[in-house]
Each structure stands twice: as structure tokens, then as C-alpha cells.
């Protein structure tokens, strides 16, 4: 009887000890680990679609003015003139050079909407015109826009190089586009056609 009682006590203690170790293992895990053991894995997010060809018609979009943070959409584009989107990187030497040459030729471009767009941090973009295109500052047809939701590359085009230029007519139809550096006379002629 003494052996049976001792066996029962040792068995009970072993069982309780095993339960405590199991609970300690579970509580030592983070809540995320515990949840992942209890719930099946969720499906991965869908991949973002990128525009491989330039949009033939200007799609709806929402960018943000770098100066104020206020939204900028198709409705904000002045009518009856060409609209040019220049997708740029503030640290790109070719972008800086093109901007400087456009600034020096502003008189030829005053009847064209010029929108410099980047997905970079607005702090990097804020001084871009002040540094590389002083003559473009505070012009009514020139704006630096922040594409915080990457709409440009999803809806308009993913360029191979910067600067990438897109010219849309007053009807919103694509007239021309190109990636990379071009002669400034060609650029101005295409912007104003």
C-alpha cells in the first residue's frame, strides 16, 4: 500500500510539473507566436500593378503639393494647355540639369503646365527648385508634387531612367514621353507643340 501511495504521489507531481512546463512555454512566447499557433496564416497581400507602358489618357490621380501638403488632382490642372509631368529624383544629376535649363528658358514655357513629381521624401524635394531652377519658383504654372502613394508608377508609367517626361495635351491624351536626358531644344519643342 505504501508503494501504491508513493507511486500515486510521484505520478501526480510529475503530471502537475509537466502542465506547468507546458504553460510556462506558452507564456514565454510572444502573443504573436501564440496567435500564430492558434490561427491559420493569412493570405499574402496582392502585388501592386505597375504601368509598363505610358498611359495614353491621363488617369485620375492624387499627388500632394510639396509646399503645403494639400492634395492635387486632375481637377487642379488648368485647361486649354499642354501638361507636362517630369518624374524626377532630387539627387539625379540629369534631373538637376534639365530643371536648370527649363528654368533658363521659362519664357518659352509659360503657357505649359509643368509638374515636377517625385516619390522621395518631401524634405529632399522642398529645396529642389530653389537649388536648381530658381527662375521657376512661384510661377503659376509650375508645381513640385509629392507622390506618396506611388500612383505615378502604378497608373502612368514606370520609367527606365530619370528624368522621365510625359506630355499630355489639353484633352488629356498623351502626346509624347521619354526617359532620360534629351537636348533642351528638343524638350522645349515637344513641351510646346
CATH architecture label of the largest domain? 3-Layer(aba) Sandwich
Order of strands across the widest beta sheet?
Answer: 2-1-5-4-3-6-7
Beta-strand percentage?
A: 15-25%
Radius of gyration: 30 Å
CATH superfamily of the largest domain: Glutaredoxin
Q: Could you name the ranges where pLDDT drops below 50 across 5 or more consecutive residues? A: 1-43
Write down the domain tally: 2
Counting H and I runs of at least 4 residues, what is the number of helices? Answer: 8
Distance between the termini: 107 Å
Gross morphology is globular
What this model shows, in words?
- There is one protein chain.
- By secondary structure, the chain is α/β, with parallel strands linked by helices.
- The chain folds into two domains: 37 residues; 131 residues, Glutaredoxin (3-Layer(aba) Sandwich), CATH 3.40.30.10.
- The chain has a seven-stranded mixed sheet, with no helix packed on it.
- It is globular, with a radius of gyration of 30 Å.
- The N and C termini lie far apart (107 Å).
Topology:
Blueprint: H1 2-28, H2 31-38, E1 62-65, E2 71-73, E3 83-87, H3 93-104, H4 106-109, E4 113-118, H5 122-125, H6 128-132, E5 142-146, H7 151-156, E6 164-168, E7 174-179, H8 184-192
Parallel strand pairs: 3-4, 4-5
Antiparallel strand pairs: 1-2, 1-5, 3-6, 6-7
